[in-house]
Design a protein that fits this description.
Largest interface: A-B, 12 and 9 residues
CATH topology of chain B: Peroxisomal Thiolase, Chain A, domain 1
Shape of chain B: globular
Distance between the termini of chain A: 15 Å
Largest sheet of chain B: 12 strands, mixed
CATH architecture of chain B: 3-Layer(aba) Sandwich
Oligomer: heterodimer
Radius of gyration of chain B: 20 Å
Number of domains of chain A: 1
CATH class of chain A: Mainly Alpha
Strand content of chain A: under 5%
Order of helices and strands of chain A: HHH
Number of helices of chain A: 3
CATH superfamily of chain B: Thiolase/Chalcone synthase
Structural class of chain A: mainly alpha
CATH architecture of chain A: Orthogonal Bundle
Structural class of chain B: alpha/beta
Largest sheet of chain A: none
């Protein structure tokens, strides 16, 4: 998958799970303030992204640094690269 | 003890969303029972009938609130919303700690559990589990969701007594207000249909299946040709309030709860007991401080099972004699299980307000073994000052409420 395809898959998964408006899915959107998610949603977001992308991120320290949708994209892209490098 | 007023009523029923849909369906004598084709896919299940709530998906509830709600919690929240809107209480008081919630279900959301376990058993993994699973299936989920949705921060109780759940919820709420520990209670029962409910009755030869091809004729309380329960779903929620406070704020008092009793008969976990039913009704009358001869109408539990209807009719005859007008609403609604206490109490209160009693649907020829009390078959114009509402449940639980007409 290209980076654009991964970002698209992440966005689609989040839009579906959290019933978000596609128009709000911009990189600078704050997860809590702009997308309206909370700590329980973050737990479910991890499950959704793991399923959608076939990766394991639950115990990743990098998750704690995520503040914006763009952070999620970068985190996932990095994770995909690491996974592919290992395999 | 304080007097307890009913100041709000809300319904989600097999007739659709809202109090008006419930009442018009009942007054017009319609059946809400339909053939549910998917039931043919279940082995060992003879019934094809159910009384489902049409056209309610709860999507109007914001996702952040809905994520913890099963279908039965959505029903409860929508019914509570209608009841609270009618009660028009000061919203600033919702969080005072004096406003509580008593809402129960027969069983936690089976639809949610089934969906989780169907996936889980593929590999016994919990890695795909979402946080909403617990909040949708915890036993007090419906009550907690009602409390959270409206910000009601007083007592929270989730009684579970199968078919007597709703009636118990109203009774326990009444006692909390009467004793002064709470001022307002949002109370009732809620139920989502699952094939397991129908299968449970079917297994015990207590589910209707002879009318699979004529659903509108199924569920025939007290009728000679009855063949069992048709399971339904919905929610019936009332707002109960300290009578004096309701009076002081100029609220419309729809009715007054004046008596309640519930007891357990331990001779059998499944068989109804006429003696226990009669004892329960007598205790409710004693709690209300009234004699049997002043009760104007009884809204029966009568689910159209062979044994239950006979036991209740005999108990009614024993306590009230031959003149007491009696009807059951399960010919219209099917058996909405935990929701039945709330929905049928709402209908009973509306009958009192209209001065007209709704008869038992599908009662063509009364079973001779149910003869005794006056089980009427057409709408009757009557002033009803005092009514008694029964609900009885598997587990040996019996429950009765005494209701006085409002203003």
């Amino acid at each position: 998958m290209t980076d654009a395809e991964i970002i698209s898959l992440v966005n689609d998964s989040l839009v579906e799970e959290f019933e978000l408006e596609s128009s709000t899915m911009v990189s600078e959107a704050e997860i809590f303030d702009d997308l309206g998610l909370d700590s329980l949603d973050i737990v479910d977001m991890v499950v959704v992204l793991e399923e959608a992308l076939g990766i394991k991120i639950r115990d990743d320290e990098g998750l704690r640094e995520i503040r914006t949708l763009g952070d999620i994209h970068q985190f996932i892209l990095q994770k995909k690269r690491e996974t592919e490098a290992v395999s | 003890m304080r007097r307890v007023a009913v100041t709000g009523m809300g319904a989600v029923s097999p007739f659709g969303r809202g109090f008006a849909a419930l009442i018009s369906g009942l007054v017009e004598g319609r059946s809400a029972i339909k053939v549910l084709d998917e039931l043919k896919d279940y082995g060992g299940l003879r019934t094809r009938l159910a009384a489902l709530v049409p056209g309610v998906d709860g999507k109007e509830i914001p996702r952040s609130k809905r994520r913890s709600m099963s279908r039965q919690s959505i029903f409860a929240v929508l019914a509570a919303q209608e009841a609270l809107t009618q009660a028009a209480l000061p919203e600033a008081e919702y969080g005072s700690g004096r406003y509580g919630v008593v809402v129960g279900t027969t069983i936690s959301s089976l639809e949610t559990s089934e969906s989780f376990f169907a996936d889980h058993f593929r590999d016994k993994s919990f890695s795909r589990m979402k946080t909403s699973l617990f909040f949708k299936t915890m036993n007090h989920s419906a009550a907690a969701n009602v409390a959270h949705f409206f910000g009601l921060e007083g007592r929270l109780l989730a009684p579970a007594a199968a078919c007597a759940t709703g009636c118990q919820a109203l009774g326990y709420a009444y006692e909390m207000i009467a004793s002064g520990v709470q001022d307002v209670m949002v109370c009732g029962g809620t139920e989502e249909f699952h094939p397991l409910s129908a299968a449970t009755f079917d297994l015990m030869n207590a589910a209707s299946f002879r009318y699979n091809d004529r659903p509108e004729l199924a569920s025939r309380p007290f009728d000679r040709e009855r063949d069992g329960v048709v399971c339904g779903e919905g929610a019936g929620v009332l707002v109960l309030e300290d009578w004096q406070s309701a009076q002081d704020r100029g609220a419309k008092i729809l009715a007054e709860i004046i008596g309640f009793a519930t007891l357990t008969e331990t001779g059998s976990i499944a068989e109804p007991s006429s003696a226990a039913m009669q004892r329960c009704m007598a205790l409710a009358l004693a709690n209300a401080g009234v004699e049997a001869d002043v009760i104007d109408y009884v809204n029966a539990h009568a689910t159209a099972t062979e044994k239950g209807d006979i036991a209740e009719a005999q108990a009614l005859l024993g306590l009230f004699g031959e003149q007491i007008p009696v009807s059951s609403l399960k010919g219209h609604l099917g058996h909405t299980l935990a929701a039945s206490g709330g929905l049928e109490t709402i209908a009973t209160i509306e009958m009192m307000r209209r001065g007209e009693l709704i008869p038992t649907r599908n009662l063509n020829e009364i079973d001779p073994r149910c003869q005794g009390p006056r089980i009427f078959t057409a709408i009757e114009k009557q002033t009803t000052s005092l009514a008694l509402k029964n609900n009885f449940a598997l587990g040996g639980v019996n429950c009765s409420l005494v209701i006085r007409a409002g203003q």
